[in-house]
From TrEMBL:
GO molecular function: aldehyde dehydrogenase (NAD+) activity
Domain Aldehyde dehydrogenase stretches: 24-483
Name of protein: aldehyde dehydrogenase (NAD(+))
UniProt entry keywords in alphabetical sequence: Oxidoreductase
Active site: E259
Enzyme class: oxidoreductase
Lineage of the organism: Eukaryota, Fungi, Dikarya, Ascomycota, Pezizomycotina
Family of the protein in this entry: Belongs to the aldehyde dehydrogenase family.
Highest taxon above the source species: Eukaryota
Natural source organism: Pseudogymnoascus verrucosus
Amino acid sequence: MLLTVPQDKQKIITQLFINNEYVNCQNPQKISVYNPITEELVSDQIPVAGEHDVDAAVAAGNAAFVKWRAWRGTARRQLLLKFADLLERDQEELGFLTRLTLGAPYLAFGQGEIQTAVENFRYFAGWIDKFAGESFPQDDGFYKVVRNEPLGVVAGIIPWNGPLASVGLKAAPALATGNVFILKPSEKTPLMAAALGKLIIEAGFPPGVFQVLSGDGSTGALLASHMNVAKVSFTGSVQTGKTVQILAAQSNLKRVTLELGGKSPAVIFDDANLENATEWCVNTMTVNSGQICFAPSRVYCQAGIYDRFLELYGKKFTAKKMGDPEDKDTSLGPVIDKAQYDRIVSMITTAESEKQGTLLQGGRGTTGKGFFIQPAIFVDTKENATIYKDEIFGPVVVINRFETEEEVVAKSNNSKYGLMAGVFTQDINRALRVSSAFDSGVVGINCISTINISCPFGGTKESGIGREQGSAALRCYTEPKTVLINLAY
Ligand code: NAD
């Protein structure tokens, strides 16, 4: 059954969620969203929150913050757990609302994405009474207490490629630590975010604690430059991330977390288990049609195993079924929209015409409706080529050959990105040496492009600032306050 827009358009909410109410947007501007499978219009009524809307949400947030930060930890924990249960209960509907404009298959992507959100709310709920701060003895006459204080209004500006997971990654730690949260979803996937308002009310969040403002970059910029927003937690492209940091600095020096792009290297040594290496590299490159920040889009394979690796990688790549995300055995959906389709196809054709590398297979758009691109493999790519250096954010991989460990470490690190890297080898000494040499926020040994909720996730270099998940995330949403108690009085 083809993914189609429901006749009953009731499911599509075209209002903002401010102070626990669905309200009409004061700004008259609207956005259109389309179904990437059928190319039909889903809605042309998505509101773009403007200055007055943003001001209203920020004011409601700051008013709510005073009480919310003082809530009993156990009560806050219950709320987050209830919200996680509601997300889980409504996962099919939320998944559908995301899929309608994203196009990624539910089983191969959507289900895991929602589970990430659910688990983040549960995980950070568990931290609420365990991030108390520190104390130091009165050896100098002062008893010292260091409290982890919430910041205030946190704006979560998120991308389209993992919209619900991003809500969990940002809202859960922000709310757990006593901040209030304003969600600004991507203009390409606004439907699921708008539906969250109903669950926020049902969970019992007080007004102003968790709000949703749809909009485009202009809404994001209003939040990033707002004088009464204390922090922006941003996920998106490097270019926009830099703009957000500038806006934050030019306004009130608000805190920023930036989760940005990547061009993650996978390094396959001659002694690697070929089946395991190809399985990881292909599966994580094709999920969500390569529109994943930490996809292994730059592969280096050692000369002795190179031909066999290429053959198996190519076979597995081709075996991925592309088509309707409603089919259970579909692995690859379309890319999100026409702009993304045109950008990727143009990068591929330019790479071919400029001989940036050799296109081994795929790389063509399919005929008929839908923004489908056959997954592409480029080999022998030049190291100064765009296709080799830049994030494509689509089903396009570059695979190059290497000879020595020293050479491949240098090549892997010669990138402005540092989000994820992976090394595949049976030699544990080499695996540990290379993992330590990678300049990257996360490293996989005999695996790649996977994360764990208890451990920090984020990038070095231009892949970002700050970390999500694990206790590291809590530090990004709090500021230590030192209290000195003079015991002489
Ligand atoms: P984007 O930068 O175009 O947009 C991201 C968000 O920023 C959207 O909500 C958008 O409306 C908003 N925005 C746009 N202009 C803005 C401005 N001037 N001020 C404030 N906000 C603004 O990114 P995208 O196309 O939605 O997402 C794809 C990018 O996200 C890729 O580069 C990908 O690697 C990255 N990403 C990173 C991670 C990570 O965890 N590191 C995860 C997912 C995606």
